[in-house]
């Protein structure tokens, strides 16, 4: 039963992370394009630091780092009279009132908190990748279009909203769909972040069950469980490919690109 | 304990030489640097071997996908789809349990349940699928004139492939293949987190970084050390591939060289 629930967890993660990462990416790309120098530096640094550092190291790092950051902020807020350093030898100590979630909180709060940390981590990492894609896409919109808009007397804000943002998607979509595929394939890493996801349940349920503990004893079935997961991901990838192709065809309509031209010729 | 002593004790810890016990207290920077560096031996082992063997298979797969024989084409397409469409993490789990299962039936498979062989096989097949797709793309974009010129010189069959098609394919695919190599090295960090056991705590760099982060509750030291090692490794890979790129393009005018840009993908 729990494994079905865990599939839901994975889909939920995708559903929350994709828009959040896109928002992070949009913020990052806008910051990197900004005319205010410090903002531009922050945007560029965000993109290059997250992209430059390898792998799951980031996932493992961020979960602890974010957790400690939240607890430290709450610690300073709630217990101002506390004078001991937070790093005591090999321990990270904050006052009990600052614990997140509180030690007395029910189990589901702990799980939700872990899940939210994972979502935030995924969003930060994938946000940087999305920022890079969107940054490139914004630059790919033909300059002449923006200049025409300026010549019509639009303000910078109007140009952004009416010309730049609607048009950039067609340039961003190949990169973003690639990113989506990578994101799908990153979801099993939730397991490493301590969330009870499908990998966790596949290991639990597939393991050898003896008659003492269960009504349905069986041997080591983990291979089959992971085989099923493999098929699940393959199907998911295939479906995404089909859907993204449709979106691409829809977005290309009437655009000044080679594909848009081909569409126009086919229709005529 | 002096730092030189630590290096002598732990530098080859990951392959089973030196001190048996991991440090339990007093985690100095020197210890962290040495042990994480020691773990890098595994990352380099997996990365280099998988790349060399995977390269051969990738060429075969690319040619197979481009072939006019329906059977070989379909087989190559499925191979690429299965390994590119599912997460590497799940592939590791599945392979590990598959080998465990096989071991009970045929004892000859027992070395494959160890990370050193089993994970290597998964990595080889995985990188073969990804680079196969890259080489297939390159194969499709070989200038028609090159092939026609080869025909005009009377080259055909194997000698045309060896002297014209294959070098041109490498030349065209090289920048993307460089990224794939970087990405492969990053993917090696997954090995010890996906089923394959680290016998006697002989793990890779991320395994030790994670060990220190767990023991000290301070992620801000081991993970940046790991990141530094990986950035160094990435730079070396870029340098080696850059040299190969120069050699592949040595007949072209010097300014026509395509620069290899560092564009890593995060996960697979």
UniProtKB/TrEMBL annotation, chain B:
GO terms for cellular component: ATP-binding cassette (ABC) transporter complex. GO terms for molecular function: transmembrane transporter activity. NCBIfam families: HEQRo_perm_3TM (TIGR01726). It comes from Cognatiyoonia sediminum. Keywords: Amino-acid transport, Cell membrane, Membrane, Transmembrane, Transmembrane helix, Transport. It is found in: Cell inner membrane; Cell membrane. The keyword Calcium does not apply. GO terms for biological process: amino acid transport. It comes from the Bacteria. This is Amino acid ABC transporter membrane protein 2, PAAT family. Pfam families: BPD_transp_1 (PF00528). Belongs to the binding-protein-dependent transport system permease family. HisMQ subfamily. The chain crosses the membrane at residues 44-66, 78-99, 105-125, 220-241. Residues 40-242 form the ABC transmembrane type-1 domain. Signal peptide: none annotated. It is a multi-pass membrane protein. The lineage of its organism: Bacteria, Pseudomonadati, Pseudomonadota, Alphaproteobacteria, Rhodobacterales.
């Amino acid at each position: 039963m729990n494994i079905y629930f865990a599939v839901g967890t994975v889909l939920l993660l995708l559903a929350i992370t994709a828009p959040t990462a896109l928002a992070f990416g949009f913020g990052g790309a806008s910051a990197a394009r900004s005319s205010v120098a410090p903002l531009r530096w922050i945007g560029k640094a965000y993109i290059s630091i997250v992209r430059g550092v390898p792998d799951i190291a980031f996932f493992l790092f961020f979960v602890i780092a974010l957790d400690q950051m939240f607890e430290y902020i709450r610690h300073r807020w709630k217990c101002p009279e506390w004078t001991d350093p937070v790093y005591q030898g090999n321990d990270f100590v904050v006052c009990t009132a600052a614990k997140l979630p509180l030690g007395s909180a029910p189990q589901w709060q702990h799980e939700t908190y872990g899940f939210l940390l994972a979502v935030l981590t995924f969003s930060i990492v994938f946000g940087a990748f999305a920022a890079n894609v969107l940054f490139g896409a914004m630059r790919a919109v033909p300059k002449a279009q923006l200049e025409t808009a300026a010549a019509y007397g639009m303000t910078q804000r109007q140009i952004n909203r009416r010309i730049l943002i609607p048009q950039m998607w067609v340039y961003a979509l190949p990169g973003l769909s690639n990113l989506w595929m990578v994101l799908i394939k990153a979801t099993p890493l939730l397991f490493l972040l301590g969330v009870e996801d499908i990998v966790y349940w596949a290991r639990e349920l597939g393991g050898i069950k003896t008659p003492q503990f269960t009504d349905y004893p069986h041997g080591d079935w983990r291979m089959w469980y992971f085989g099923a997961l493999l098929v699940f991901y393959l199907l998911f990838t295939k479906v995404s490919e089909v859907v993204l192709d449709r979106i691409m065809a829809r977005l290309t309509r009437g655009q000044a690109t080679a594909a848009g031209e081909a569409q126009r010729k086919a229709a005529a | 304990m002096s730092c030189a002593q630590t290096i002598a004790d732990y530098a080859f810890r990951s392959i089973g030489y030196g001190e048996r016990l991991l440090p339990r207290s007093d985690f100095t920077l020197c210890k962290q640097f040495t042990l994480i560096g020691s773990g890098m031996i595994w990352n380099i082992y997996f990365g280099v071997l998988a790349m060399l063997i995977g390269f051969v298979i990738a060429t075969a797969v690319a040619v197979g996908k481009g072939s006019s024989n329906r059977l070989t084409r379909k087989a190559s397409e499925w191979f690429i789809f299965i390994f590119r469409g599912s997460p590497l993490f799940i592939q590791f789990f599945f392979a590990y349990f598959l080998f465990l299962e096989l071991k009970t039936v045929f004892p000859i498979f027992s070395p494959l349940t160890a990370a050193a062989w089993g994970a290597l096989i998964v990595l080889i097949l995985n990188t073969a699928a990804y680079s196969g797709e890259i080489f297939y793309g390159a194969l499709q974009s070989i200038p028609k004139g090159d092939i026609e010129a080869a025909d005009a010189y009377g080259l055909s069959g194997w000698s045309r492939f060896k002297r014209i098609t294959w070098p041109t394919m490498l030349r065209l695919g090289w920048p993307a293949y460089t990224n794939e190599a970087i990405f492969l090295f990053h993917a090696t960090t997954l090995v010890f987190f996906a089923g394959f056991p680290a016998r006697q705590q002989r793990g890779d760099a991320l395994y030790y970084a994670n060990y220190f982060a767990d023991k000290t509750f301070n992620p801000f030291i081991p993970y940046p050390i790991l990141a530094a090692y990986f950035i160094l490794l990435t730079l070396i890979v870029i340098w080696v591939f850059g040299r190969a790129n120069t050699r592949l393009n040595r007949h072209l005018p010097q300014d026509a060289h395509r620069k290899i840009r560092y564009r890593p993908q995060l996960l697979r």
